[in-house]
């Protein structure tokens, strides 16, 4: 089965998502990104997924009320039950001729779950293009580094 590895979602930023100056709250954008990552990983694994980790969040541009944001979620690595999703957010103002601009990016680690909420194996990923292979190698190294640093959970 050839699995979908990219998802694109868009949303208009509304006043209830912003502060008094019209800047959209970072948490609103991160929630949107989490949804993009969840849809990408869920479609890839064909099962429920949850967020286990978010890192390397980079806010590059402010986003204001009225902007259309587009989230691109790309599967870059798959471990045993984890799925690494690179999410980028482009911002576009429809009343401007300006091209969409990169506003935000982050990496989300999602975990595939069964109906009882237990981790299940995720389908293996076979990167095909040079870009996919490069991203896969970078994510694999990062995944290994994170595993080495992981602390045991205290009960």
Task: Give the key terms.
alpha+beta; 5 strands; 2 helices; Thiol Ester Dehydrase, Chain A; 155 residues
Structure description:
The protein is an alpha+beta fold. It is built from two helices and five strands; from the N terminus they run βαββββα. The protein has a five-stranded antiparallel β-sheet with strand order 1-3-4-5-2. The longest helix has 20 residues, at 26-45. The N and C termini lie far apart (40 Å). The mean pLDDT is 94. It has one domain: Thiol Ester Dehydrase, Chain A (Roll), CATH 3.10.129.10.
The CATH superfamily is identified as Hotdog Thioesterase
Radius of gyration (CA) equals 17 Å
**Integer tally of domains:** 1
Derived from helix and strand composition plus strand pairing, the structural class reads alpha+beta
* Uncertain parts: none
Ends distance:
40 Å
Strand content: 25-35%
Total strands = 5
Total helix count?
2
Average pLDDT figure? 94
Give the strand order of the largest sheet, numbering strands 1, 2, ... along the chain.
Answer: 1-3-4-5-2
Q: What is the CATH architecture term?
A: Roll
Identify the overall geometry: globular
Give the arrangement of secondary structure elements:
Elements: E1 6-12, H1 26-45, E2 48-59, E3 68-78, E4 82-92, E5 101-113, H2 130-149
Antiparallel strand pairs: 1-3, 2-5, 3-4, 4-5
